Fold each of these.
Amino acid sequence: MSEQTRVPASPGSPVGEHQSVLELAHRRRNGLYLLPVLALAVAATALIGSLAGGGSRRAPAAGAAARAGAAGARTKVATADVRSPTTRAVVHEGTTAAVGGARAAAGEVRDPQEAASHPAPASALHSAAASPAKAGEAVVAAGAPSDAEVKAELEQMEAAKRVAAQRQRLSLTPVPGGESIGGNGTIPIPPNVPEVVQRVIAGANEIADFPYVYGGGHASFIDNAYDCSGSVSYALAAGGLLGQPETSGELESWGAPGPGRYITVLANPGHTYMYVDGVLYDTAGRSAVYASRWQVQPTDNSGYVVRHWPGL
């Protein structure tokens, strides 16, 4: 019988059993040869995947580090005793620098008006601000006493006249070296505007003469220096119009498009400012490091997104 000829065997015959054993051994031998090949293929695939994905895994780590730095800065502000001059220096240099670095890492455009904002030197210290809600309490009392309605109305009319006269005097006497208003750097709170607007003015007054530091007011509303968007955010928060600090780029989408009757915010990716009841509130154009953010003249508004709060 030739080698090509196979003898069919019945399942129970000795020939059939011998043939089955040989075929099983043949299949097992081939399987053992394939296992190393498959293992090498799997390992090579994993290595190629790890090399290809290395860059994408490193990028989130950098973002996580930036977020961790900003979170650490917020914790530092929350736990620091800002009444101590030494602590104020640490808060001033630590939180604002950390937040400024995080914003830069996130691609935030640095304020092109920073040089015109009298950036504070490292030696400049300022006491920490109150919370925006606390600052917003310094408003003219709404309504009139029930036992003296007529008298209160007359007093409000006289107060409105005094406010108008004082604003006129302020507009004529800027501090030399810039456009900041004179006096103590604050503007009077008019009694004939909505209470929300009064609170925004009160909040703006609270930090009107604080130094400018890039990143200031972003780790926390309570800081001792504020940049352009930190300043606007603080004032808006005093009126309940903002829940957390926003960058100038984020303020481009605050509220609704167009100018407002009482409050108009102007923003672009690098700078922001606002008009409140017709008065400019801006870090750029101030007269000195501790000069007021309230300024006597309007500025060029070209190149900015115009926003307002609905109804205001």
Note: Strands lie at 256-257, 263-267, 272-276, 279-281, 294-295, 305-308.
Amino acid sequence: MSHDPTLDPSLTSWVDTANESANRAATDFPIQNLPYGRMRRAGSGEPWRIGVAIGDKALDLRLAFDVPAWSEDLRAPLRELADGDLNAFMARPASERRAVRQRLSDGLRTGSVHQAALTPCIVAQAGIELDVPCRVGDYTDFYTGIHHATTVGKLFRPDAPLMPNYKWVPIGYHGRASSIGVSGQRFHRPKGQTKAADAAEPSFGPSRRMDYELELGIFIGTPNELGSPVPMAEAESHVFGLALFNDWSARDIQSWEYQPLGPFLSKNFASTVSPWIVTMEALAPFRRPFERPAGDPQPLPYLDSPANRASGAIDIQLEVWLQTQAMRDAKLPPHRLSRSNFLDAYWTMAQLVAHHTVNGCNLQSGDLLGTGTLSGPTAAGAASLLELTQGGKQALSLPNGETRTFLEDGDTIILRGFCEQPGARRIGFGECAGTLLSSR
């Protein structure tokens, strides 16, 4: 951590000094974070531009572009950010991205000579609207949560919950990028074919088993050429950063359609991503060794590297919260359903990138890799209702007297994530919220 001055835990910011929002211990966005998002002033109709979250404010990089605080070599990447083109910036070499991060840190820290010039470029997050942070050309969803896979597998295959390939191959499927929305997304209950176990034929109608899935979204930065696999030693250099991700699921549609080719209409109606991408640089203090449980097979050589074993895992605490319509009407706060950690994933980011490209597949800047449902080893860490209610067999009791087996119309699911450890500033991901509406 000491080699990167932007991570110095003693750094503070001049932003919103009176309220100390950027310097509070509990803020998601201290100066050590500096995540990127696509923003504009709410209701303005202005062109989208890239901003950097700092406390409960954001630095508008379209406004900041004209501030004489930037060296000439940073003008080109800053122009991309000012123009709202995060994809172009993500595709730049990591050294250039780090140089921009360092300059942003220099400009926003307490005592910066650029404070007066940058102050007019600071906007309140409460007064902006946010979009999906970059253009997502392709989206692949993986299945790295072994505790989720085991619990769900037991519902259908009690004696052999995991498929024979699970501990050898990072399982994934190609999802739908066009229906990915940003936090605050509201979508209608999907319709499709379902088949009850005791029915002779399937029926058509609204899903009655709507669910969420707590995931992380991995955003690709540097692309690879078609036909050029990315080796493990280089895999993480192709990752720009992470965001929270909710892969909404219609379980009854899924159970009828998923064989033999996997999820389709049960998944492609909506997915929700948090608006701020936390960069790999900001996550550096929270890296951990990656190791398989005793007795499990070791990864094949193309999925293994010394660096991955030494620090391939990341300590990210994850939470799911539910607020029902009745809670909102009564002005009750959301209720936390579960808490888990990215450390429990069975595969690392580097392994996902290496496996995705080993056949020559070309990942592009802005491509999104979902981790799959990140459940923990106990019931308190179950990251979907399918697990929490044992497939709908055990209703979940809420503090206001309501119960849930699956989501009801008007329910809002909120995902939260953060990293914290002694000797480092806590950083967070903001919220990833989505609301289920009635079917059309």
Note: The longest strand covers residues 427-437.
Amino acid sequence: MRRLSAFNLVSLALGLAFLYAPIAILVVYSFNASRLVTVWGGWSTRWYLALIEDRDMLEAAANSLGIAALSAALATVLGTLAALALARLGRFRGRLAFSAMVYAPLVMPEVITGLSLLLLFVAVDADRGFLTITASHTTLTMCFVTIVVQSRLAGFDTSLEEAGFLLAFSLSLDDLVIASFTTGPGATTLPIRIYSEVRLGVKPEINAVCTVIIAVVAVAIVVASLLAKRRDAGGAPALPAA
């Protein structure tokens, strides 16, 4: 086994610190008793209690989860169908135009995409809210699902469908720009809510809700890893008898 040099170890440590130190600081300060985010006032869970009582924040989180789940499901279905068409139908008429439309959101700035969708919804006189954000996020994330599935259709693995769904779910849950263009009254997502709160000053409650999200994601990753290991162990071929 090749040993890591001192330079590689230092580089690895700095890289991990750059990635995870801000997250660690956020988690620690979510337990800060002080109302001032930059001043440590001792350990407390008061901001988690405040979060439970904040109906607007909880409603925004529920909206984000619902939109992410629905748009990810739609993007997975549509993206897989698009990948099948591109991988299995050969060079059909209109393939170039179809590919361009599928992959356009990859290179299009989100501001342009959001503004275009806003103009579309205004033109058709659609009430902006939950459904318009879902449609917008489906449009945004479908191309990512198409790329993931199309790249491995030759030796198709059903786990790629799960990967495409999770990628679309994460992109939808995190989106701020397009959602801000296509939202309406009563459909505030969590990123929009956090952004509006941060503009008036960072509250420790924001650290609390971010920590909850980090914890949920970490638990989901651990559970998924354990299930994958169990599935691999169950499908492993038995060793021949001696």
Note: The radius of gyration is 22 Å.
Amino acid sequence: MLKSNLLQKTELKIDPIYLQSANLTDIAAAAADVLGLPAEEVLVVDYQQRVLVLDILNTCVNAYKIVGQKETLLKSLAALPGVSITDETSVYSNGMLAWIALDERTAVEGLKNSGQLVAEIRQNIAKRAAVFSSGAEIEHSEIEDTNTPAIKAHLEANGFKVSTAGILPDDRILIAARLREAAELGGYGVIITTGGVGAEAKDQTVEAIQELDPDAAAPYICRFEIGTGRHVKDGVRIAVGGFRDTTLIALPGPNDEVLASLGPMLDGLNNKAKKQTIAEAIASNLRDILHRKMKTRKGSWSHEGSQLHLPHRRN
């Protein structure tokens, strides 16, 4: 079903139409029925000098319900008590609702072509990615950003077009703003961040994604006792969320963990998996890496500057 955004052009004008003790609620309900909308989503907002104005409250409608429906709409309205139309009566709109007055056969053919074009655009967008790094140490060139080139190379080898989007600050509000801007204006199917997922106060990437998507999947890689070392949070998490049509993915900072995440991440994206599925596949793989590191280092492991002890970890 092809949905069309009305882009704030939500008014239908019917001119001329004659009302005599007509029921405006019935008029709105009849129009809603023709447009395939719930009755409460269509209102009569004005009637002056034989011009009736309807407002569509739903800004996204089924395009195939609109095209070529002018005569059906007028006939439905004319059947109501107190409503009269003439041979000159027509339906007008400044937006996508103007399709209602088009020839149905021509309009439907146009919609089919539009649907194919939309599908191609969505497919192209799905293969466009932006990569953000994070952290003051990268911003100040204290350490090399090895993650962005690795992600870029891996995704490009798998058919993605990848943009380097810059460095995110250690600030939840500013991170959320940068991600929102990239999602709204960049035309990216996926945005990936690295770093900022730890348990210290400066780690705010997961929280920023949750700001944009409160239902984002954010499974733990490991857990800590709050107050141990610099830990102000109870563990390390990654996140997979969505904003508009963009998938947001927050990966850890260590390069080996980023590299280990690319396979599960790419599989999930290619299979159009749910965010929970992608997140858990990435997190599960990282937990396995953590177990091996802990065994190698005899029960303790340093993660992004924080000391994790085996007795404090829970799956």
Note: The radius of gyration is 27 Å.
